[in-house]
Design a protein that fits this description.
The chain has 235 residues and is mainly beta. The chain folds into 2 domains: 125 residues, Jelly Rolls (Sandwich), CATH 2.60.120; 96 residues, Jelly Rolls (Sandwich), CATH 2.60.120.10. It is 0% helix and 57% strand. It contains no helices and 22 strands. The strands form 4 sheets. It has a 7-stranded mixed sheet, with no helix packed on it. A hairpin with a 3-residue loop joins strand 2 and strand 3. The radius of gyration is 17 Å and the shape is globular.
Length: 235
């Protein structure tokens, strides 16, 4: 097993007034030549958007975009005619494919919205754009993981054009969980949303991440109540 630790404080951190964000990989004005991507994982942004503010209409292509709100409500509009609200407990996926335009705004006029936005390189070029969102029962998760994103054609999670699986879990303190990779050649990016965990002797705190390659399984042990996102992706 090979690992690279990405501490929370090593991320690119910016306060734009209306947007407070942390970039796990090079993005916008933050460039770190050692943190361009991890395999197919290109972007992991930890955003908080002020009330009534957001991203005006902009374009994407050939990218799989996953949005996971952690508080508040995000309003989405796109060139496919989709218009709706994404709230905590929901996950949105958008396959940009041959090209899509969309906007994202905080739906509230009084409270911020916080979210993770994650981009993966697509494994098929110029496909017909696709959009989905789904409510998951995260509140009742206890010492288990639920698959929220999976490859196109799978019957679990929301589907994307990439051989990747995202699993979100909640674990009590002093609990261990064994994750077996779906594809042995894949890598795993473990991101601690909340809490404190240990993987292979490496201690991770809130918003820390561990990039893992050359293993077929990994053991996660918690030292506090934790919420964890496991991203298995081609490397």
């Amino acid at each position: 097993m090979k690992t690279i630790l990405h501490k929370a404080e090593s991320r690119g951190s910016f306060d734009y007034g209306w947007l407070k964000t942390n970039y796990s990989f090079s993005f916008s004005s933050w460039h770190n030549p050692e943190r361009i991507h991890f395999g197919a994982l290109r972007v992991l942004n930890d955003d908080t958007i002020s009330s009534g503010m957001g991203f005006d209409t902009h374009s994407h292509d050939n990218m799989e975009i996953i949005t996971i709100p952690t508080s508040g409500q995000l309003e989405h509009k796109d060139s496919m005619g989709n218009h709706g609200i994404i709230s905590k407990g929901e996950v949105q996926v958008m396959s940009a494919g041959s090209g899509i335009q969309h906007s994202e705004f905080n739906h509230s006029k009084s409270i911020p919205v916080s979210l993770f936005q994650i981009w993966l390189f697509s494994n098929k070029k110029n496909v017909t754009p696709n959009y989905e969102q789904r409510l998951f029962d995260f509140e009742n998760l206890k010492n288990e993981f639920i698959v929220i994103v999976s490859p196109m054609g799978e019957k679990v999670g929301l589907n994307i054009h990439q051989n990747a699986w995202f699993s979100l879990g909640k674990m009590d303190a002093n609990f261990s969980y064994n994750y077996e990779l779906k594809v042995k050649k894949n890598g795993v990016y473990v991101f601690v949303i909340e809490g404190e965990i240990n993987i292979n002797g490496e201690k991770l705190n809130r918003r820390d991440a561990l990039a893992i390659t050359e293993t077929s399984e990994l053991k996660i042990t918690t030292t506090s109540k934790s919420e964890i996102l496991i991203m298995e992706i081609p490397v």
